[in-house]
Amino acid sequence: MSRRDKSAAAPVTETGAMAEHFDVLIIGAGLSGIGAAWRLQQQRPGASYAVLEARSAIGGTWDLFRYPGVRSDSDMFTLSYPFRPWQGDRSLASGESIRRYIQDTADEGGITPHIRFSARVVAADWTADHWTVRLAGGETLTCAFLYACAGYYDYAGGHQPDFAGLEDYTGRFVHPQSWPADLDYAGRRVVVIGSGATAVTLVPAMAGTAAHVTMLQRSPSYLTVLPGRDVVADLLRRRLPARVAHKVARAKNILLTQGFYQLARRRPERVKALLRRFAVQHLADAAYVDEHFTPTYQPWDQRLCVIPDADLFEAIKAGAASVVTDHIDRFVPEGIRLRSGRTLEADVVVSATGLSLLPIGGVTLTVDGRPVDPGRHVAYRGVMLSSVPNFAYCIGYTNASWTLRADLSHRYVCRLLSYLDRTGYVAATPKETPGNRRPLLDLSSGYVQRALDRFPQQGDKDPWTVRQNYLLDVLTTPRADVRRDMTFSRSTAPVLEEIR
């Protein structure tokens, strides 16, 4: 993909006006988008690019979520960028400190001037060897390569079940994804519906202020206790240069998390017993643990929830919080009536009922005028789509920090762009080989299962599989042959094949 003379060869819009053209357009200015821009500047100096951010600020997820206690459930030595050491004192960091870290990275790297805020991409069409990208405000840009780094959450709203009788409820009802700034829950009775990462974060964060917080769950989730500070990393940072300490702490945490995941998949009963022992140790009530913290599924069939410094267990022990495992019958004026007949009185109900997933940020893609349905395509190396040229998307691991795979994806994209430049090709299109297909995401969590048909599938052999194994990927992805199962083009011939 040779960089073209913008004044002589920039594409024109439907109205005949000259469109602003870039070598690469990056969708999203969150953790992934800023990382992609950094790698692009580092490995492709001189390439023209812009970052298109739908919101008015940097940060993505970490700017969107503002509920009490919002934090990372991955350690920051693996969630942070490998090229910019994490200097914070908390390994499981607050959302605001992560947002500042992303902002500081963009400022330090000279990326911020390349970001266009309130620039929501609604559609992109590939034709004549370039993408025409349309923004919600009507502006049109073009690029040679399009890279979607918008994550997989639907920023417009989270998952909200249709609760019977909700219109009868006289208290305050909120969803964590749209947390109201004016919500005052001091001295009030709060019920948090859910048992996932958001719920186990909210309950201890609100428990110190509310009169009492009840976590209402249909079924338990597995929880693991981790220290909020990484004492080994703190020791390393006192003894070693910052970058060296960061690399060692990062390697240590990668080995621990990947090792624990493999143990959970190979010896689930052993891990279940270990997690139960941790919970009993903190709560000192085996019967309570068996009732409320013993799931029916196997560890890592769903993402493991982390509670830093056992804060949820401590809130329960102190009497500031409690857990109820039951099903909702309906809302009543004073709160929630359960199937058991019990009524939970609540001044505030927080519906931490999960997220809604949205592939490639909800952008409508077409290739030579034909619509692209991501659910009918296959993931190529976990970063491109079969039969879609010069397009990549960023998606993280389900069993490790998002950034680990994201950074591998950024580096792969840069290698592919360099190959196009060296060879004079203008387009690279993954060509699917025959084989079985299976879902891209391998979790049984409700928010994943609800959206599986909207996401790309994966095949049964390399490079069409999406591994959940960073240790293997970090060895193979940087050396992966960018030519394998790839069709390269110097022409403007249509490239989208029939999708089976």
UniProtKB/TrEMBL annotation:
Transmembrane region(s): none
Pfam families: FMO-like (PF00743), NAD_binding_8 (PF13450)
MF terms in GO: flavin adenine dinucleotide binding; N,N-dimethylaniline monooxygenase activity; NADP binding
Cofactor: FAD
Keywords: FAD, Flavoprotein, Monooxygenase, NADP, Oxidoreductase
Record family assignment: Belongs to the FAD-binding monooxygenase family.
The protein, known as: Monooxygenase flavin-binding family protein
